[in-house]
Amino acid sequence: MSQAVLDGVRDLLPGFRERADECERLRVVPESSIKELDETGFFKLLQPRRFDGHEADPITFYTAVRDIASACGSTGWVSSVVGVHPWQVALFAEEAQQAVWGEDTSTRLSSSYAPTGKATVTEGGYILSGKWSFSSGSDHCSWVLLGGLVFNAEGQVVDFKTFMVPRSDYTINDVWHMVGLAGTGSNDIVVEDVFVPEAFTLSMGETGQCKGPGQEQNTNDLYKLPFHSIFTGTITTPIIGMAMGAYAEHVEMQQARSRAAYLGEKASKDPFAMVRIARASSEIDAAWALLVNNIREEQAYVAKGEPIPLRTRLKVRRDQVIGSERAIEAIDALFEASGGRALTTGTYLQRAWRDAHAGRVHAANDPERALQMFGAHEFGHKVDPGMY
């Protein structure tokens, strides 16, 4: 079934590429693209089988995202961050899972995890308020996952949680006017004094231990992998896909290009151009191979019933941020060598250049923090496993 989803997604790629300009103009992924993805079963790849999902291998999910992004960066980005949320919903208490999927298993959620909101403890749950930015794909979703610090009656922080909130309890502010990932509709979410029941929350401390109350119902090994491995992969994968799309277009353009400044020399016969594409392809392949191999390594520990070593989890983050860098450096090298026609509105290459650099500023792609933590662990310093 998962292969059928991949095949269905690949059939959609020409349409996504044709609609890429429309996606940017609308500042949101076209509804037709979301509908097509929904019909393939893409958004259910990581969803539990008991809610009509596939419980697919995360690499299958990442492969689909990579391919989508190779046709349209914004569509790939939204597909990735919206498509991964069923994995986290499966960790919530059964009551929350039923609220999301009990009546409609095609329900989608957006998110904004930075703890910019405030929750105060009250009887049976929390009162949540705040504004969250960058909720990609929110226009296509009827629930949202929000990060927030929890305060007790004395004003002390007692937890950091994810809060699940229905569409009726939040407002979307249309603020997304960007030069990159312009079609992701990553707008603001505003919540004002909304009651969130305890069952609709998930402690990030517990998540950091690869635990969640939903594991009682959803026993597949898929739901025992680290949050920060699965979710950061959803940020790097579309960037790798953008690099693949940029590479394909660059090669196609250079095969037809004559370089006027070099007396009409065919670009495809330039030995320096050959070296450049060889290096770029290697960087893209390396970024993808490390992502796949690291997830496979974590899966092997889970399959044996063993805890995933902290060093392995840190390595996943190390290679994830480096993977984003590698993909973007490949795009930069190709863009620089593509000539002035690559700047033309409507070309994939100039859009990939903008989209990838926009994706680079996501918090999950902060290289210094991830690399410093890996290095600290190697030197024997204490590292909080909850963050990795």
From TrEMBL:
Domain Acyl-CoA dehydrogenase C-terminal: residue ranges: 235-366
Keyword list, A-Z: Monooxygenase, Oxidoreductase
CDD domains with a match to the protein in the record: NcnH
Coiled-coil boundaries: none
Any one GO molecular function term: monooxygenase activity
InterPro entries, per database record: Acyl-CoA_dehydrogenase, Acyl-CoA_DH_C, Acyl-CoA_Oxase/DH_mid-dom_sf, AcylCo_DH-like_C, AcylCoA_DH/ox_N, AcylCoA_DH/ox_N_sf, AcylCoA_DH/oxidase_NM_dom_sf, HsaA
Acyl-CoA dehydrogenase/oxidase N-terminal domain span: 9-101
Gene3D superfamilies: Acyl-CoA dehydrogenase/oxidase, N-terminal domain (1.10.540.10), Butyryl-CoA Dehydrogenase, subunit A, domain 2 (2.40.110.10), Butyryl-CoA Dehydrogenase, subunit A, domain 3 (1.20.140.10)
Family statement: Belongs to the HpaH/HsaA monooxygenase family.
Name the record gives this protein: Flavin-dependent monooxygenase
Lineage: Bacteria, Bacillati, Actinomycetota, Actinomycetes, Propionibacteriales
